[in-house]
Design goal:
mainly alpha
Length: 336
């Protein structure tokens, strides 16, 4: 097995450094955009309108959407040896760890480490499932944004973001598959555990049926998360229809997640939401108030899971990178 050379490592560091610089530039530009358009006293007044009931409702919707995503992941893994609750925790932990880094390089390694080391799942199966769910997320999120834009003339500029970013996200699926094939070609250090017998329901389900079920769960998951954005937008006085709010909420997550930026996409997320709401003529002050709370309900639960995982089973971020590098889970060109 070939080992990474010093030249390769330097190249990887250079690529990561360039991504970090680009993230700082994009995040700084987003913050400048916000600061130049916002009247903070008005925004604070709108923030005060949101009640604990509306916050709790939006948190429940986000949690429900995330749990549907965990159910989809269990189907893609095709094993009875792990529960949707465990997968809910793993995927939120990975998101929470990624929040700390503008490079967003921890998500796949954290998921792989937790499921292979703590749960004993075969690494090829884990990679295949991650590739599948990323592809489905890109397809469904892009589809929601495109349909929303086509139905509302004012949102047509969203197509300029959605189409190329969806293509980019789908391309990331191909990179994960490439890594998975490389791993499959490696000799295993020890015999792989026997594959659990699939449940009876899955034995009679065709691949096409499985695809339909998992895509349906993906759509339901993002609709629930989009509804959380609508609840918070309505709570600050934005009189927006649910079929306008959902594409804007999902589009904001798609754009802010695809572009490099500051940790937690701070500034970029809010600027994107404010801009998209502005396409429909809504006040930037009101939109920012909704964006801040929407961003909070998306990342705070994930941060909580990450903190618990660091206490229970995860090493430090630097140790995570070291372990996945030794295991060959990081491409030699420095990508994630």
């Amino acid at each position: 097995m070939m080992t990474p050379t010093v030249h390769t490592s330097r190249r990887g560091v250079a690529i990561l450094g360039a991504r970090f610089g680009l993230g700082l530039a994009i995040g700084g530009a987003a913050l400048w955009f916000l600061l130049s358009r916002i009247e903070w006293p008005a925004t604070l007044a709108y923030l005060a309108r949101i009640s604990l009931v509306e916050m709790a409702a939006s948190l429940c919707l986000v949690g429900f959407g995330s749990f549907l995503g965990a159910m989809r992941w269990k189907l893609l893994l095709g094993t009875d040896g792990i529960s949707p609750g465990r997968l809910f925790f793993v995927q939120n932990t990975a998101h929470g760890v990624d929040v700390f880094s503008p490079l967003r390089i921890f998500s796949i390694p954290v998921q792989v480490l937790m499921l292979t080391k703590s749960d004993g799942l075969p690494i090829q199966r884990v990679f295949a499932s991650i590739a599948g769910k990323r592809f489905m997320d890109a397809l469904v999120m892009g589809g929601v944004v495109v349909v929303g834009a086509l139905l509302t003339h004012s949102l047509w500029p969203m197509l300029a973001f959605a189409l190329p970013l969806t293509t980019w996200a789908v391309a990331a699926w191909g990179s994960v598959l490439t890594i998975g094939k490389a791993l499959a070609a490696k000799p295993a250090p020890q015999p792989e555990p026997a594959t659990p017998t699939p449940p009876s329901l899955r034995q009679g389900r065709s691949r096409l049926q499985l695809l339909g079920v998992t895509l349906s769960l993906t759509l339901a998951s993002w609709m629930a998360i989009g509804l959380a954005g609508w609840v918070l937008a309505s709570s600050v006085g934005l009189e927006i229809g649910v079929w306008h709010a959902i594409p804007i909420a999902v589009g904001t997550i798609l754009i802010a997640g695809a572009l490099p930026g500051l940790p937690a996409a701070f500034g970029l997320f809010e600027a994107t939401f404010v801009h998209l709401m502005g396409l429909l003529g809504y006040s930037a002050d009101q939109a920012l108030a909704a964006a801040l709370f929407f961003h909070a309900v998306l990342i705070l639960p994930a941060l909580g899971c990450a903190v618990v995982a660091f206490f229970k089973e995860l090493p430090s971020p630097l140790q995570i990178l070291s372990q996945v590098h030794k295991a060959g889970l990081v491409p030699r060109h420095g990508g994630s």
